[in-house]
């Protein structure tokens, strides 16, 4: 009995440490400590669980042997992959680890339901319903995250619409509901129903994620993150485990808020992200008339322009991340600052592949976070900036979002780079951006285009600035 | 035993806590925070261990085995990824002090 008390006490402290850790993660100064607190809580919680009454703490016990083996395999694979992955690939890794969590929650439910189908005593209808709910949510998060991972990793075509996709999804969802009802009310539970219930739930996750394009992936990963939290909480009720209930629910609600914030920043409703493919109905927008023409600038001229500026605002986008130009940008920033130029970075909420992803990439290159400004902070500064350097960003600086109500991105908050005295756009070639919408900024009078790969172009700018010294 | 109304209370209070905790997070920390909360639901490891502990027979053991592997992957991967991202944040002040 004493062991039970110790376990309960540790779980209580674990839940508190998780919440405090998450709170610490809300400030750049304390964030690194926050994750260490949460990590310590996780280690203690896992260790004390070996003393749980359900676990036979005897090395001759097959369950314990296999459990230790699984712990070692899972930890080792995740440790090595997380250490090795490049920062640009982090979003899909988060998707994968999140999917594993969802899968684990579904698997816990599977063990419970298989036990029930084998004639184990039921703990009541509520417990069975919660197990089933956690199972669906966890399984959808598992397979959906796997698809998200495959898409971001480039293993799968970006969007895939099957014929009558929505109808099929509705049919599958209905099937999951019916089977879920049969499983959660079954006494005893039919083993066949359990199997089909899990298969359909996994298929549902795949089908829901298939038509969603790469641009919307961050929102989807965030949503699956919240869903996994919820699934963990439900399985926490099933196992009567307070740490799982509290941690899972906290993640569920914070993840939901984060998902809404992301969708809002992209000017899309969550329903829109989930139930329609972006750009599949577009195409007509490209036909519109554009005034002006694109003007090319040489790197040496652009370098002079920036070197004699008082204020330069850099607008990095996903193209910058692909070109791995962040280290070069940092070098250029140093050179400009040495000349007394005020350099800031303007980050759109959805720059990169996830909110904050661009900040991580810049941080990797050693850029101070107090030079990084978000949309609301920096927009008033563009009119007083001499140069706005747009590198690998497109839709997030397209003034059409302010001016043309017919545009698919109309109403999306954008960075007002067009209001700077001069705009230099580093771009690989002519052509529309990810969404396929023409960017009017590129044709503006104060805009000049610097064509080339991001990293190479910035290297040329650096050489140009150095030549002036 | 947590059930009935107390369980609902825990659920509600935790939900509000999660909402409040994240509402003060600056945009620059959103990806690390998503990774961090991804780590926090790695607590599913505890449940996976318990499920594995009480598993009987080959099928339950196999499912439990997979559950523990995935949960451990969630926890360890989530932790390492978050730490790696957060290690990159420096302030000018800190660098100046060095």
The parts of chain A where pLDDT drops under 50 for at least 5 residues are: 278-287
Instruction: Provide mean pLDDT of chain A, rounded.
Output: 86
Instruction: Using the alpha-carbon principal axes, give the shape of chain B.
Output: flat
Uncertain ranges of chain B: 91-98
* Average residue pLDDT of chain B: 84
Write a concise synopsis of the structure shown:
Chain A is 58% helix and 7% strand. Chain A is an alpha/beta fold and 469 residues long.
Sequence-ordered SSE layout with sheet pairings:
The complex is a heterodimer of chains A (469) and B (98).
Chain A: H1 2-24, H2 31-49, H3 62-84, H4 90-117, H5 125-152, H6 165-185, H7 191-209, H8 217-239, H9 242-265, H10 270-275, H11 299-307, E1 311-316, H12 318-323, H13 326-338, E2 342-347, H14 357-364, E3 372-374, H15 375-378, E4 387-391, H16 400-403, E5 422-427, E6 447-451, H17 454-467
Parallel strand pairs in A: 1-2, 1-4, 2-3, 4-5, 5-6
Chain B: H1 5-23, H2 30-40, H3 44-53, H4 57-86, H5 92-97
Helix pairs in contact in B: 2-4, 3-4
Describe the structure.
The complex is a heterodimer of chains A (469) and B (98). Chain A is α/β, with parallel strands linked by helices. Chain A folds into three domains: 1-77; 95-283, no CATH class; 299-467, Rossmann fold, CATH 3.40.50. In chain A, 58% of the residues lie in helices and 7% in strands. Chain A has helices at 2-24, 31-49, 62-84, 90-117, 125-152, 165-185, 191-209, 217-239, 242-265, 270-275, 299-307, 318-323, 326-338, 357-364, 375-378, 400-403, 454-467, and strands spanning 311-316, 342-347, 372-374, 387-391, 422-427, 447-451. Chain A has a six-stranded parallel beta sheet with strand order 3-2-1-4-5-6. The N and C termini of chain A lie far apart (76 Å). Chain B has 98 residues and is mainly alpha-helical. Chain B has a domain at 27-87. Chain B has helices spanning 5-23, 30-40, 44-53, 57-86, 92-97. In chain B, helix 2 runs antiparallel to helix 4 and helix 3 packs antiparallel against helix 4. Chain B starts with a helix and ends with a helix. Mean pLDDT of chain B is 84; it is low at 91-98. Chains A and B meet through helix 1, helix 2, helix 3, helix 4 and helix 8 of A and helix 1, helix 2, helix 3 and helix 4 of B.
